[in-house]
Amino acid sequence: MVEGALYTDWEAIYQDNVVKVYRLMFARVGNRPDAEDLTSEVFVKSLPNLTLPLPVIQVHAYINVAIRSVLADHWRRHYGAPLADVEVENIVQPNDVTPSAEGSGRAGRILALLPDRSRAILELRFLRGCSIKEAAREMGVSPGNAKILQYRALRLAADVGQRMLS
Amino acid sequence: MRCRVDRIAAFVDDLVHNRRPCRFKASPEEMVALRAAAELASVRPGADRPDRQFVEHVYASINFTVRRTFP
Fold it and tell me: Fewer beta carbons below 10 Å: N end or C end of chain B?
């Protein structure tokens, strides 16, 4: 980004940022329908209200605020997450809306740091798209135990992800 | 515990099939697992690439709103 650069029209803001915002949303909600709704919400709500021209850095800061707000609202409305819980998420750096070339890379690094069985169940599910029954068969456990293994693996993955941020 | 692992398993099933996931009031422990699952869903190559039609549709929506607000 060129220091002091300006956005003079909303089309440029949209074209420069829509893919980055979508990827960031996908990395936070993990599915296409929600990622599309939330991305749309960020732009439809924020862009018409910007008074242009504005410095690029200021537009990115504005988009970051919108992302935080939209995500917080999503987790609160659908899963009852307390607002403060969402606000501590590390979304993007103030002048960088490029988290998620990161998305898949970070997820892969988290998997790589897990103990073998935890990594195996999560790879079967997320990477190979196995059902819980198929994953259970591959792991040599009952479907009930595969669910427990998966739940514990996700908690471990959350710990690993947290440690990677700190 | 059983109820909790079933809910998380159903959530992961939805992510694996790229469906809008089930909604429920999650405990703080479940919330940790839900967010980890959401993040791991982007591990599939290309999973986080937006659909071109979606990008164009949102562009058209904003265009409509902007033109109506600032004719």
Answer: C
* Nearest CB to A31; choose among B20, B23, B51: B20
User: Which residues in chain B are contacts of A47 at CB distance < 8 A?
Assistant: 62, 66
**Residues across chain B:** 71
Which residue of chain B has the CA closest to A130? B16
Ranges assigned E (strand) in A4-161: 6-7, 54-55
Find chain A residues with C-beta within 8 A of B62's C-beta.
Answer: 10, 14, 43-44, 47-48
pLDDT in tens, chain B (71 residues): 669 999 999 999 999 999 999 999 999 999 999 999 999 999 998 999 999 999 999 999 988 887 777 66
**What are the backbone angles phi and psi of residue A13, rounded to the nearest 5°?**
-60, -45
B18: left (phi over 0), alpha (psi -120 to 50) or beta: left
Q: Across the strands, what pairs with A7? A: A54
